[in-house]
């Protein structure tokens, strides 16, 4: 392609490093690229994400794509709404970073070493529910802001600990701050955590093919497809916080051949999670062929709902 490819990104340090990896892959493939920073309402507001709504970080980038100001948009995949955007396609999902969550605690402590009553900062209902479900007596404190300002709250003694995505810290060169990488058995990550979504206009077939052949990782794409399908199906029927993690596994068949499959685990809170200090979590897992990732996600969501995920407690319970 002879044209210069304009790649749209948020202007945060994290977004710029993420976009840089996509730009590098395109440059290695011999393309000319230009990075265009787009400011989003999510960057300007300090209100809780639950109030300003899903898509605050991603809709402005999608607008720039549709307007033709940029040719490619790079998002943190987990920040994208599950609903498809008319006129835009997901062209590629690059190889995923470590999807797990990480603890950054004072004095190098792990979760198990934090004394009861310790304050743990997070703005995520998913992390909050899973932390409280451990029954360690941790006190979850809502926080927001960029990674640096969150880390400062621990270093200045305002909080005992915070939980952040390992991927964001690694990309910023801050992985040495992590005091424990949380086992997904205790803390299932957000669907698509650690993955990027690379979008282009639906009618821009040249760019779509270029991104597919230079940036996409088929295994990552199948895994996040399963996680996001689970999330989308739960959003329709459940108001609970949701965690999901899919992994590519290689199964040895009876005839000696190796088949690649997707193994998906999901978690959601039962009932009205805020009604008790220690919420009840519903867990389920399943395996399917990579080609059935979407169906795997939908079926696991149905199972979680059957088991009571997100069922609202008592009369007058309302979705939120
Ligand atoms: N919601 C904010 C957000 N979006 C993407 C990341 C980190 C990178 C990733 O998960 O891909 C983060 C910060 C965090 O959750 O700690």
UniProtKB/TrEMBL annotation:
Its cofactor is dipyrromethane. It catalyses: 4 porphobilinogen + H2O = hydroxymethylbilane + 4 NH4(+). Coiled coil: none annotated. It is an enzyme of class 2 (transferase). Gene3D superfamilies: Periplasmic binding protein-like II, Porphobilinogen deaminase, C-terminal domain. Residues 223-305 form the Porphobilinogen deaminase C-terminal domain. Pfam families: Porphobil_deam (PF01379), Porphobil_deamC (PF03900). Binds 1 dipyrromethane group covalently. One of its GO terms (cellular component) is cytoplasm. The keyword Transferase applies. Residues 5-208 form the Porphobilinogen deaminase N-terminal domain. One of its GO terms (molecular function) is hydroxymethylbilane synthase activity. SUPFAM superfamilies: Periplasmic binding protein-like II (SSF53850), Porphobilinogen deaminase (hydroxymethylbilane synthase), C-terminal domain (SSF54782). InterPro entries: HemC, Porphobilin_deaminase_cofac_BS, Porphobilin_deaminase_N, Porphobilinogen_deaminase_C, Porphobilinogen_deaminase_C_sf. One of its GO terms (biological process) is protoporphyrinogen IX biosynthetic process. The modification S-(dipyrrolylmethanemethyl)cysteine is found at residue 238. Its EC number is 2.5.1.61. Belongs to the HMBS family. Tetrapolymerization of the monopyrrole PBG into the hydroxymethylbilane pre-uroporphyrinogen in several discrete steps. The porphobilinogen subunits are added to the dipyrromethane group. Monomer. PANTHER family: PORPHOBILINOGEN DEAMINASE. NCBIfam families: hemC. HAMAP family: Porphobil_deam. This is Porphobilinogen deaminase.
